[in-house]
Design a protein that fits this description.
Length: 446
Amino acid sequence: MTTTGAHQEAAGRTARGWWWWGRRRSAVLDVTLGAVSAVECAAEGVGFADRAGLPVPVGVLFGFAVGAVLVVRRRWPVAVVLVSIAITPAEMGYLMGMVGLYTLAASEVPRRIIAVLAGMSLAAVLIVTFVRVRQDIASADFDPGPWYVLLMAVILSLGMNAPPVLFGLYIGARRRLLESLRERADSLEQELSLLADRAEQRAQMARTEERTRIAREMHDVVAHRVSLMVVHAAALQAVALKDPQKAVRNAALVGDMGRQALTELREMLGVLRAGDAAPVRGSVPLAAVGRAAAAAAAVGADGRVGAGAPDPVDDGPCLDALEELVEQSRQAGMVVELRVSGETRSYGARVERTAYRVVQEGLTNVHKHAAGAKVVVRLAHREGEVAMQVENGPTDGSAADAGLPSGGNGLVGMRERVTALGGVFVSGPTDEGGFKVSAVLPAAAV
């Protein structure tokens, strides 16, 4: 964090105790001014001693001691001005009076105190000057008129007091303005740093969510297609010698499944490679950066990053491909019944794609964990929402287990997808010993 000049000066004061100067040149300047003021007052002390009937050394020492007070002008400006006012009748300390008034006006002392002390100094100089000019005119046997003495006193008093006060007020205002601008610059720098940190956090969250989304897409494509391919391959092995015609059909189905899986994977990888024709080693793909920025900017009403962002992959299976999905499972030997209720209508791309993936994940789980079980797929078009359910009965003990591995992330990914759209996802065992997966999605995605 950037430290302002005021903070540096305060730190310097704390470190040096009563040595109040923030910089060395300030100390040199004040000591020099104090020395000049001491010499001036010492010289003027000779005349003061003659007028007061004191020994000359006493007047010199008094003037030297009084003039040296100017050294503390930054620490105690009020005291310096009071001393200069006090010695005004002795006709000494002119430099100390002007420098003291300038320092007082430029300091943080309240304006009322500045006005009172400046008025006192002006009155003291006016009275002393009036008396001195009047005495000089009387001794010179010269009578210019009553107005001359007053005019000269006013001019001299204003000339010695007004310029230092006005210049000090200007310097003080300028110093405060610069300090305010410096503090604002520091504040803006801190805000920019916080915004940069927040943007980095959002970008990191967006990258994490993008990786999660890609993992879900890969799981949806690979798990279902490959599961069907494994099931068909097992059936092909079982009937290869007994029923060659059926084996040929199963082999064709396996080929179709593989081509469909490769096509969907190629589409997703093509989206990831878009805009990154010449990648630099160790760099982030441009497409991924664009999606991360879009996801970071699209913060939903509930605070989730990317919750309101559109799905980067616009192409994908929707509800109109649900019959084909069910048919693929039937061809793999599964007994599947599709029940559709309500008036069929279209929804947003994200809603239809998520509904399709829920049904796909449910069928994939049946292939993995409930071989031979009967399955009922329900799709309900309701007012303002669409509901889907995949329910299977108990596992048929006579059916051979396909031995498909499971990572346990399919249902977790479906729950994240559904809740991200403002829907409800429920999964669990049934009373009959089976398992069901159901979800309800709003017609307009949140």
